[in-house]
Amino acid sequence: MATAVMTSLDTKSPAASxxxxxxxxxNLFIIPTILFLIxxxxxxxxxxxxxxxxxxxxxxxxxxxFVGLRNYRELLNDPFIWANFAITAKYVIISVSGQVxxxxxxxxxxxxxIPLKGLLTTLLLLPMMLSMxxxxxxxxxxxxxxxxxxxxxxxxxxFEWLSNPDMALYAVAITDIWMWSPFVxxxxxxxxxxxxxxxxxxxxxxxxxxxxxxxxxxLPLVAPILMIAIIFRTMEAFKTFDLAYILTSQPTTEVIxxxxxxxxxxxxxxGRSCAxxxxxxxxxxxxxxxxxxxxNKVKER
Amino acid sequence: xxxxELKGITKNFGDHTALQNMNLDIAxxxxxxxxxxxxAGKTTTLRLIAxxxxxxxxQIFIDGRDVxxxxxxxxxxxxVLQQYSLYPRYTVRENLEFPLKSxxxxxxxxxxxxxxxxxxxxxxxxHLLDRKTDRxxxxxxxxxxxxRAIVRKPRVFLMDEPLSAxxxxxxxxxxxxxxxxxxxxxxxxxFVTHDQIEAxxxxxxxxxxxxxxxxxxxxxxxIYNNPVNTFVAGSVGSPPMNLIDGTIAGGEAVSDDGYxxxxxxxxxxxxxxxxxxxxxxxxxxxxxxxxxxxxxVHDVENHxxxxxxxxRTGEKFIRAxxxxxxxxxxxxxxxxxxxPEKVVLFDSRTGVSLRHAS
Lengths: 301, 358
Prior knowledge:
heterodimer, A: mainly alpha, MetI-like fold, 14 helices, B: alpha+beta, Rossmann fold, CATH 2.40.50.140, 2 domains, five-stranded antiparallel sheet, about 25% helix, elongated, membrane (chain A), MetI-like_sf (chain A), transmembrane (chain A)
């Protein structure tokens, strides 16, 4: 099958004149990538699976002892870990739904003939291109209770965004929404502009109102691509680390990856943190799978 | 049902003038066909009537009321487009229900079902009702899109080349169906096409558009037999009307290629010596041994019921329809004559028919 998909090498090409065959060129491109993947992704993945069944500590020279499923058992019975998961879930829901609302809304606004549309779209995409650490640092300044511009602009006085335990998670989510709504917007815009204009005209002639048109035509046609955006953002939000870590150190913002980081590199419980990483991995896989199933259903309809 | 009137409609897109001072009157219950080449302004006319575009100048009346301020929904017209515009991801039934289910309309569910079923029966798509629209063939899609128009009982049907994307056989079948449908519904139809056969066979009236100008309106008979200018003469009929340049001298038509044909000048116009164009339909040209015109057979097309012969006279080509039994060889020398009654005179310079000019 693979050979059927591959096109044959042009016999007059420089590569062919050097005596290279199709197969050789294929290997030349693919083998380094696969090697890289094995060394940096697959090997650590399997190696950490092994560690997750031991009491290994990377900070000591003590040999690793096999402890069976003890790490998993203790982790899953630890109420603090569950609290971290609950925080993460809350964060994912707030942040992703915020991004979808803002991103899709902006896309709806941009999906028409307006002057400077290209420039506007590019400018709106800028937050997405910044580094997480930079975004975290300057939003920390924006949120600052005494000189932050947010309090000044909203007239909130010295409202504590980040040191207020009830507000901190929302503050992180708002930053994340600001940064990643453009991503949802970009994908939605692609979906929206793919809806043929004549369908809207047909709907107008059929006397469909704007809401009816939106729910019966626009949304079903954009749904698949919107689902892809949601999958990506959920996965990313689930493993958020940098933003939350930089912005605040409240216990209420200790999402699972921060817990994992602390466990691995501050408490040096290497074996246990490997087990936790696996639990997170399985959860992300499970959630993604649910989405993908749903995506396929949406596509079929 | 409705009566449509366009008064002095002009539509510009930027520098481009799509329609120029167009006046059109479509009677209630009439099947009106707009005929024109691509870019002649046919679709623009439809979109203006449907309310999808606003005219640069002029007024549109539906049932005597100026509809300038009405949106597409309020005008209550149905538009069938060339690209079908079925709503994807829905079944045929859902597509047909769409215009009825709109909250603006409030149709009872029982009535929706009844109307959808009736339309499906009329268009013979009952067996497709539960199928997704992307699993339909072109002809089936077009029927569904026509069905979606009928189900609403609109005041006017606007059809934008609905048949042009279909294959020849299906086109013929749907042509008959559409015409029957229009007669059964008694509805006003405005049908746009570039296909003169569709125009001739379906229209109660035809409007010929050329570059945004409405050149002539009339019954198919008028358009065919009495074209207002050489453009109409050349665009209606298959093959089109022969246009022969020449003059009139001594009661005879003298072609620029040298042959003379009898001509009874029924017009009360002095035409002697003036450069003219003689328009003659291929079926009004006869090949006969005693004919006054001399020509060489250039090409013979067999159409089954008849043969179309291309004759070479000097530099020019003219076409004649001959019975299918006629035996003709390429390069054979033949003589021809015409039916003098049927000749239409055009002014060579302006291309306007002398009958219409006078």
